[in-house]
Design brief:
Blueprint: E1 4-5, H1 15-26, H2 46-59, E2 66-71, H3 74-86, E3 90-95, H4 98-107, E4 112-118, E5 140-143, E6 145-146, E7 151-152, E8 163-166, E9 181-187, E10 198-203, H5 220-225, H6 235-251, H7 253-274, E11 278-280, E12 291-296, H8 304-313, E13 316-317, E14 328-331, H9 338-354
Parallel strand pairs: 1-13, 3-4, 3-5, 5-8, 8-9
Antiparallel strand pairs: 2-10, 6-7, 9-10, 11-12, 12-14
Helix pairs in contact: 1-6, 2-6, 3-4, 6-7, 7-9
């Protein structure tokens, strides 16, 4: 049976990316060696990293003066690298979910942290809008897509100070104005590659402004100066990321990814709003295109396990909601086809018919 992969992360990748990575794992570029058994410094591998960097720059329209690096440690390590490298006295954070909160917790070890606003009191079902960003802070940190709660900042905010953004789960799903940020980072395993590589886009002249000692491996400059090769980079995930970036380009770039994301999200939210058995959990204006969260309507609450079983039998994978929200979460990343979203909608409609 065809599986429809709605996993939140690690998550669906384009089929051809998986197939071509598998081929390179068996025989990289006709070398007779596996991608897993070559040096990251092999002359054939350098072009893979170079291409990933140049596709990042091209697809996101990254201005001059920015570097793209590939790191280990996940977005979770960036929570600490960001303040290590950019926080001298004070930083502002928007608390929109569990990941934002973790980022804020790390920053507190480096200086004063101002939480400009929080939606914790409403279990992060919306993104706060009215708040003041302190103009004397070193940066304003946001999480553009809240993977767990299904809320998303779908446009770049205006901030009086440079922004830092965790874009783990919505990078390459829309055009962004990189010039508003000094750092954009994320784990690649949501929209780009298998787990194991982290990306960071860094404004070069924002570095070197903190007075503390930064350990070599946690210093962005180390990785920029060494082209992501200071230590052994995760070769296989970087290779897969390069193929995904090529795929995005072939499909028409981030504008096309955005068009598809809007189309898929509109389809599924349309059904959630129409179908009397389900309700969406996020505030309508903040609804994420990437992670679509919904629960059973109160009068059908006891059918939750039944629907899960029903949908699973029809090939849906990964639709169980995060434990802090409950219900269901359908992650609709770039690689998920419209047909999978339609299959979920069909299952919801059939389930409604069965119970009316
Ligand atoms: C998944 C996720 C993280 C954590 O990423 P790791 O690479 O596992 O550290 C952080 N932020 C957001 C928004 C995420 O979706």
């Amino acid at each position: 049976m065809k599986k429809h992969n709605f996993n939140a992360g690690p998550s669906i990748l384009p089929r051809e990316v998986i197939e071509d990575t598998a081929k390179a794992i068996l025989d990289f570029n006709g070398s007779g060696l596996s991608l897993m058994e070559i040096s990251h410094r092999a002359k054939d591998f350098q072009p893979v990293v170079d291409e990933a960097v140049s596709l990042f720059k091209e697809l996101l329209n990254i201005p001059e003066g920015y570097s793209v690096v590939f790191l280990g440690g996940g977005a979770s390590l960036e929570f600490c690298m960001v303040p290590f490298n950019f926080l001298e006295k004070k930083a502002a954070y928007l608390n929109t979910g569990a990941w934002a909160k973790k980022a804020m917790k790390e920053a507190k070890g480096f200086g004063e942290v101002v939480e400009v606003a929080s939606s914790a009191e409403a279990n992060y079902t919306y993104i706060p809008k009215d708040y003041t960003i302190p103009t004397d802070a070193d940066y304003f940190h946001i999480t553009t897509n809240n993977t767990i709660y299904g809320t998303e900042l779908k446009e770049d905010l205006n901030s009086p100070i440079p922004m830092v953004a965790d874009m783990s789960s919505d990078i390459f799903s829309r055009p962004i104005d990189v010039s508003k940020y000094i750092c954009i980072y994320g784990g690649a395993q949501k929209n780009l590659a298998p787990a194991g590589v982290t990306f960071a886009i860094i404004k070069d002249d924002a570095l070197g402004k903190v007075s503390r000692y930064i350990p070599t491996m946690l210093n962005y400059k180390t990785h920029i100066d060494n082209g992501s090769m200071f230590n052994t980079p995760p070769v296989v995930p970087i290779y897969a990321a390069t193929l995904t970036l090529r795929w995005i380009k072939e499909q028409g770039g981030v504008k096309e990814m955005e068009r598809r994301a809007i189309e898929k999200a509109d389809m599924l939210y349309g059904e959630i709003d129409r179908n009397k058995m389900f309700v969406g959990t996020a505030a309508v204006e903040d609804r994420s295109r990437m992670n679509i969260c919904f629960v059973m309507a109160p009068e059908y609450k006891d059918l939750e396990a039944d629907f899960m079983k029903f949908a699973t039998e029809k090939g849906m994978v990964g639709i169980k909601g995060h434990r802090s929200v409950g219900g269901f979460r359908a992650s609709c990343y770039n690689a998920i086809p419209k047909e999978s979203v339609q299959a979920l909608i069909d299952a919801m409609q059939e389930f409604e018919k069965l119970h009316s």
